[in-house]
Design brief:
Blueprint: H1 3-15, H2 19-34, H3 40-95
Helix pairs in contact: 1-2
Length: 96
Amino acid sequence: MNLETLERLIDEAIDKEDYKKLLELLDEREKLLKSMEVSPELAEKLLRRDEERMRKIEGNKAKLIETIMKSREYGKSIQAYGKSISEQGKRNWGRG
């Protein structure tokens, strides 16, 4: 696989939030880069792209954390509602 293809696949993995695939692609890119002569210009270009990617990943991470926190809040609300219904059922059961 050539470097251009790897770079495109890396971006796609980030867009899809497929971090397992991303790690595989980064390992493959590392092996490829070690096997070739990398000009200072190419190294700088790769570094800039990776910095952009890191910002995107950080944004995805922030969204994921927000989603997790909301899920926890919803879970607590559902548990409280379930407990309330259960207690109400116990009170009504005793009246019959």
